[in-house]
Amino acid sequence: MTALSGFRIMMPPGWSQYRVDEEGRKAFIARIAERMKQIGRPDLDVQIRMMATSQWRRLEQTRTHSIYLADREIEGLTHLPLSIAVRQHVAPIGATFAAGLRSLTTAEVVTFDTAIGPVQRWETRVAGTDDLAGVTVRSVGYGFALPEQDTRRGLIFTASLPYPDDADPALVEAAVELSDSIMETFRWR
Question: Which of 1, 45, 81, 137 is most solvent-facing, going by the fewest CB within 10 Å?
Fold first, then answer.
């Protein structure tokens, strides 16, 4: 087997990747500022930048490698507020990658056999409180173990979709289906 050099994944038109580092944070903040100007809401610019900086710190604390999100307008496409984060995971000594994932969530972790090997998937829903009351975040996790025998290491992708509680259920399901479709394109390099 040849040595792995990373992974590839296909994103829909209008999506960008941001590395979770200082350069990525600056690029992301610049994109947000540009968007606030486009929609004529400079009053939200500082507030959104502060929220983004806070979120970036959380991403760094969880050792997230990159985030993917739809941040460019594409004529004829409507983007949902779906984002996908990726990070490395190492299971505890004596545990396989798949077994190690079960300690990260209380949700049921389901294993799917695919052409690239087993893939783990789980879902959670968290209702917002306080300022976020009336908003639910649906998250879907995907685990891809390195294709080595008895490996403890791999990648975790987490797709997050915040939506108002009165959102059209068909749109929410479509976003989850989009996330599943994106993950089906994952390949080790």
Answer: 1
Is residue 5 classed exposed, middle or buried when 0-12, 13-18 and 19+ CB atoms within 10 A define those classes? Answer: exposed
| Sheet containing strand 83-90, strands side by side | 15-19, 64-70, 83-90, 153-164, 135-145, 117-127, 110-114
- Give the DSSP letter of residue 2: P
Residues of the chain with pLDDT under 50: none
Dump the DSSP string for 92-149. PTTS-HHHHHTTT-SSPPEEEEETTEEEEEEEEEEE--GGGTTEEEEEEEEEEE-SST
CA distance 146 to 11: 21
**What confidence tens digit (pLDDT) does each residue in 58-82 have?**
899 988 999 999 887 777 666 678 8
The pTM of the full predicted model, rounded to 2 decimals, is 0.86
Are 187 and 21 within 8 A, CB to CB?
no
